[in-house]
Amino acid sequence: MTDNNEVARLLSWCSERGFWLDPRIRVDVGPSGVSVISRNSAIPVDSILVRIPRQSVLSVKSSPISELIPPNPYGRGAQLSLALAVSVELVCGVASSWFPYLQSLPREIPGMPLFWVGGAHAIHGGPAECLNGTEAWKILFESAENRTSLFNEIDTYYRQVAIPVYSETCPQTIPSLRDFYYSYALVSSRSFLVDSYHGLAMVPIADAFNHAQDNHVHLESDFDVCPECGSLQQCTHDDNEAQERPSPVAADDYYEMVCIRPIPKNSEIFNTYGETLSNAELLVQYGFILDVNDNDRLVWTFDQLAEFSEDYLPERNWKTLGGLESFRELVSGLIPQSWDDTALSQSELVHIDRTHEFCLNGDASVSHGLWLYFVLLLRNSPTESIDEAMNCQLELELHAPSGVDVDAQPPLPDDHPPVPGPQHHHQQTSSPSPYGVIPELAHLLVALCRARLVRIGRLGVETTTEEFGEMLDRLADDDDDPSSRSTRMAISLAMTEKSLLDSCMAAWEGILHA
Ligand SMILES: C[S@@+](CC[C@H](N)C(=O)[O-])C[C@H]1O[C@@H](n2cnc3c(N)ncnc32)[C@H](O)[C@@H]1O
Fold it and tell me: Model-level pTM?
């Protein structure tokens, strides 16, 4: 972990480079590494707490080897490019212009699952195994960008792009793959998208703030600078039409950490790394989780739902629904429509989801997209009304034995036979239900959740709440051991997902007894 001397060296370098820190704050070393704390006076909203000179950030553009790094403006590609720039600066050591900054960063980031696979953190029996089937597992191993694992993407970039650059710039001290992982981890956990010139960048001092959802500060920057030279003023790269950049004032040469929520005296000052980040995302990108995170959710893709339907509802083949692609189009065309004023918005079990995903949210409520998928799948003809299904949903919730309780514990004991699986799926009876497709939909949702629990494995199906508690308590006793801390975070994630799935199953089984 960073020590006080390293922080002192960082601050002295910052002062030489023209940084300005409000005297009401200090940078300190605490239990979560470096943090920023208010001194003995409260700080009001709109105060500028830190000014960071634009030319002091480490980005692909400001790197001495920028010409050698293939440009990659967004997403994981941008992170990999910046990791390459950072790794070369780390090799340069004291010769790097950013040395006092780089020496102040944590030497290891064991909380990030990137370091859990292989070595002491072997996947079998290690913390990574506890992530099996969870949302974090999906981010790590089924990356949305090209369905490959994060590890493969990093390894491929290292071999194909980084090694040739190292051979040219530092042939005597080529960083190892593990060294490259470290640089990637620094970028993943600390970089900011600052403006259209630097793009993603390492921003000293701005990255000393820890994360909270109710943050006190955020980074302000004039994003719209010349992407070619970074100029805030009109420059030779401007064409005649694009001369709308505002004339600069002195402050524009800085990025600023600005107070957006009053800060009490003597308390930690937090930034946010993203208002909607779930614990799975925080863990993978930053190596920590929050005790309570309202953004936690479980997501299914359309393809996963389609695969599930083929297994559990073989009688509904895609041909009867006009083909898989036209069904996909139907569903994806309806989800973004306005659902706020529909009857569904009054449901206790379904929520109108702004992300338009097929998901279960932190209240164990299913998204309107997931509900709609099953309604469209189950209805007997394309003319059957969705409004009718919404009314049936509300009716059934109303007539559930004791109302709907989404926090109810699952009625099934752990040794209860599983809910209908692919082989013995509950068939629709010949007499139609007065609640239309909703009872069948409830059965399917329960089966979908059960299938997800099975993917989580032992922690999903066999572990009781008490056992989770005991495991977490045991690991908390050993919190100084990074491996115990990692396992504790992984188990917490699995426990949260199991609890959401259990609550969802209990609620939908509850309405089946109406
Ligand atoms: C941008 S840095 C923040 C400064 C950092 N504490 C340091 O020592 O340099 C992000 C890292 O800080 C830690 N961190 C940030 N917010 C945290 C939180 N709420 N709880 C635990 N660790 C946190 C994590 O290790 C994360 O990867």
Answer: 0.89
Pull the structure tokens for residue 155. Answer: 């390894």
Say which residue the tokens 């000393």 belong to: 208
Q: ipTM of this model?
A: 0.99
Task: Classify residue 79 as exposed, middle or buried by CB count within 10 Å of its CB (0-12, 13-18, 19+).
Answer: buried
Q: Label the pairing between strands 366-367 and 350-351.
A: parallel
- HEC per residue, 224-264: CCCCCCCCCCCCCCCCCCCCCCCCCCHHHHEEEEEECCCEC
Q: Which among 211, 213, 269, 292 is the best mutation to test ligand 1's pocket, defined by most ligand atoms within 8 Å of the CB?
A: 211
What would you report as the CA-atom Rg of the chain, rounded to the nearest whole angstrom? 26
pLDDT band at residue 256 using 50, 70 and 90 as cut-offs: very high
Distance 311 CA to ligand 1 centre (A): 43
Q: Which residues are within 8 A (CB) of 321 and not within 5 positions of it... i.e. 6 or more apart? A: 327, 376, 377
For residue 110, the model assigns a pLDDT of 84
| Nearest CA, atom 26, ligand 1 | 286
Question: Is the CB of residue 284 below 6 angstroms from any atom belonging to ligand 1?
Answer: no
- The domains located in the chain, with CATH, are 4-286 (3.90.1410.10), 298-512 (no CATH)
For ligand 1, mutation pick of 267, 288, 295, 488 (most atoms within 8 Å of CB)? 288
* Ligand 1 geometric centre to CA of 33 (Å): 6
